[in-house]
Amino acid sequence: MKRIAVIPGDGIGEEVIDGALEVLNAFSFPFKYEWGEAGDAVKERKGVALPEETLELCKESDAVLFGAVGETAADVIIKLRMELQTFANIRPAKSFKGVKSLYDDVDIVIVRENTECLYKGLEFEVADGITEGIRIITRNASEKIAHYAFELAKKERRKKVTALHKANVMRKTCALFRDVCRTVAKEYPEIEFNDYYIDAACMYLVMDPWRFDVIVTTNMFGDIVSDLAAGLVGGLGLAPSGNIGEKSAIFEPVHGSAPDIAGKGIANPSAAILSATMMLKHFGFIDEANKIEKTLEKVILEGKTTPDLGGKLKTDEMVREITKNLELS
Ligand code: ATP
Question: What CA–CA distances, in Å, run from 92 to 57, 144, 227?
């Protein structure tokens, strides 16, 4: 039995996690779900965004299924990623047939270093009107993430790994990351490797996304570039992610709590459902994950979607379409 901590969080987090659980419940996985609270609403009520008991629950679990939080993201999800030492953040961006987007055949996986960089939160106000932030990049973490990217490429039979950095300006931190990636690449001669400056890579991603297969990059660049990649394939409603550590893993949609649509029942549940299928694959339930993904593809192709993808369905109606089709298949 796997222990899964479920943290719905704020806003649409709750709505999409309900949907993901309904889809998982169409099967009988050996999962024990245990709920924890975190986020803006908890902070208002209890004065703390990530209560100790939630952190403990996550640490004791085999995986965390996370929705979204709003203003307290740094105190909740960033802290959880650091505390659970989930060093790799995996963010696939794959085109779905039937989704209006810039291109219809994008298939990129972004492997983002998840424990250091500017997201360590080392920020200080050194004088009135003067602030500073410290960027940490280590050889150890860079080697770990570079190896992860190449191993993922091998496992998924992908052909190329591209490292993104800005070593011409950040001549210590980014140069270390770039050099480590170049060295690790030599261990994988069967996989093509190159590296780009992050700014040029953003342009290439928009104009020529086919030159990318697996992207490996540092924490903040990875955060930004994965939203860009999500925009290439139909938006945040379709972008899942997994945070992988040695012992723990956190699966969460890339999107936030979306206060503009929260409570309206129109949030796209796909990113949360795809995050749940990443969790299934992590535990080895490959066939079931593929079945859910195929069913989701069919439902999207038939236009039975929430309004962000051009459909007219509410979140729960789209989820019902998926579970209905799962039962039929
Ligand atoms: P937060 O501060 O929690 O990150 P945000 O609004 O800044 O919230 P997101 O929540 O990621 O950032 O939302 C960005 C935009 O994408 C919003 O317009 C939101 O409505 C839309 N969006 C995000 N997720 C979804 C979803 N699952 N379905 C439909 N639209 C979504």
Answer: 27, 19, 11
Active site residue 199: yes
> How many other C-beta atoms are found inside a 10 Å radius of the C-beta of residue 56?
12
Active site residue 186: no
What's the CA angle centered on 286, arms 285 and 292, to 5 degrees? 95
Q: In this structure, is residue 12 part of a structural domain?
A: yes
Q: Which of 40, 78, 99, 236 to mutate for ligand 1's pocket (most ligand atoms within 8 Å of CB)?
A: 236
pTM value surpassing 0.85: yes
The average pLDDT across 149-158 equals 96
Average pLDDT, the chain: 96
Query: Three-class SS of residue 272?
Result: helix
Mutation test residue for ligand 1: of 99, 255, 306, the one with most atoms within 8 Å of CB: 255
Tell me the C-alpha to C-alpha distance, in Å, between residue 187 and each of 157, 306, 312: 16, 45, 50
Mark whether 45 and 148 lie in a shared domain: no
Tell me whether residue 13 is in a domain: yes
* Residue type for position 80: L
Q: What is the pLDDT of residue 116?
A: 93
> What distance in angstroms lies between residue 20's CA and the mean position of ligand 1's atoms?
17
Which residue ranges have their beta carbon within 6 Å of ligand 1? Answer: 12, 16, 68, 70, 236-237, 255-261, 267-268, 271, 308
- Parent domain of 52: 1-92+239-329
Q: Tally the domains of the chain.
A: 2
